[in-house]
Every structure is written in structure tokens, then in C-alpha cells.
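User: Here's a chain of 303 residues. Predict its fold as C-alpha cells.
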Amino acid sequence: MSKNLIVILGPTAVGKTRLASKIASRYNGEIISADSRQIYKGMDIGTGKDLDDYTIEGKQIPYHLIDKLDPKTDEFNLFRFNELFVHAFNDIKEKEKTAILAGGTGLYIHSLLKKYELSYADFSEKRIAQLNKLKIEELQEKLKRVNPNLHNTTDLLNKERVINAIIIAEDEQNKVLLNRPDIDAVVIGVKLDREIIKERITKRLKARLENGMIEEAKRLLHEGVSYEKMMFFGLEYKFLGMYLKGELNYNDMFQKLNSSIHKFAKRQMTWFRKMEKEGVEINWIEGPDFETAQKIIDRDFLS
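Assistant: Prediction complete.
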């Protein structure tokens, strides 16, 4: 089987998007985002969409899985990512163009490369709200009906656990398996010295705070995104939500957020090392070096 996907991965702040766009420009490609938050509309500065990076020499590079979902109502998860990836990948292939997956969400990338068996579980706010209307006794009876072989009775003692157990049991009854294409990818990893990444994270965070990230969080709250949802989105939105709610002052918000992003970058690298241990070959390059990436692609993707 010939290679049919180029993957550009790496921790935050190493220049993946710009590199992917240059590669797309060179190899007649389109980019599929492997990011767990850029899928949401209106979450631009906090997620680092940097849409200008998709313009190379005045030409707009087509991208997918960005600005597709409503942060107030829509849920994005591993199954949904795989589902949307399949649509985007097939669309790109029908145009006889090169598919390039770029991002830093290791779980999403790994699920494609290692062909996770996935099925859809409806953890949407709507479904949870429906079940929340029921009394715990009614939920317990419902769980026993959808899972008559239930052995773990601790699931019956807490309402949230009962709801989760019902959704999972319903999922098992109504499996929807994805018809994914066979993926054979060339994987390029972008890395930088950890201290350089930390410096870039801090510099970028200051710039984003000075250029509207707080106002973006205010707008999301005004438009109906709850503080609970802001906590769910994590990192920037979590700490900006706490700041706007008066739970943190500006300095504490900055310090905690900066530290959390540093830790996040470290966790990303841990994921990528885990992928390597599980058989994913990653061609590491130092920084977003287009010439080195091009040599790898010419050698492994076009050969």
C-alpha cells in the first residue's frame, strides 16, 4: 500500500501549522486539523488558530475541522474527530490532492494511525440533561434494563455515575462502527529545546492577552457559553473564566495559565513518545524546517 497521509505533529508553539501549510503548498495538499478545540467557532485566540499561517505566497491553503462546531451546544470527542476526519480525507482524495494531518492532540492522531475500534457514545449536554430529569431510582431501573448483567453496584449509588453507565450501556447496544480508510502515513515530528518552547509559550501568551484573548472569553460568556463549559475547554478558557468570575486576579491567572501550558506541552511530548513505543515511526526534525521535512516526504511519501 502506498502512503496516503502526511502527519505533522509536535507540542504547542513549535510552528506546526506554518510548516504544514508550506508542505501543502508544495505538494498540492489540504490540511486536516488534529486539534481538540480549534473545531469550535469563535474560539480563535485562545486556541491559537492563527489562520494567517494558512496563507502561503498570497494563496489560501484549504483546511478542514476548524470552525465547524458551536461551543455552546456541540460536543467534540474522539469518535467525532475520526468521523469528521474520514469525510475530510475522502473529500481531499476525491480531488486527487495530498491529505496533511497537522496538530498536537496525540490521542486523536494515535487513534487514526493505530486504527482504534471506536463507537459513538452520546455524552452530549442534551442527552445528559434528559437523563438528569429522572430521579435516581428511575435511573437505576433504566440502567438495569439496558445492562441486565451489571456487576458493579457502585454505579447505582451516584447519579452522575448512573447516567454515565446508562450512556455507555446504550452505546454497547447500538454500536456504530466507523468505516475508516486504511491509513499509511509518513509522520514528521517538530521539536525544539524545552527551554525554547517555554520561552515561546510565555511570549505568545502575553501577546494573546494583549490582543483580545480576554475580550474573546467575555464574548463567549455573553453569547451563552457557561462557566462550566469554559472549565471543560481547559487551559486558556478555564483560567480566563476563573479570572472573569473573580476567582483569580490577573497576575495569578497569568502565572497559573502559563505554567499549565508548559505542563501541557510536556504531556504532549509524553504522548508522542508513547506512540513511538507502540510502533509509530516519527521522523523528528529540529523546528519547522521545511527543507528537512521536504526531504523526508520525497524519500518516504513519493517513493
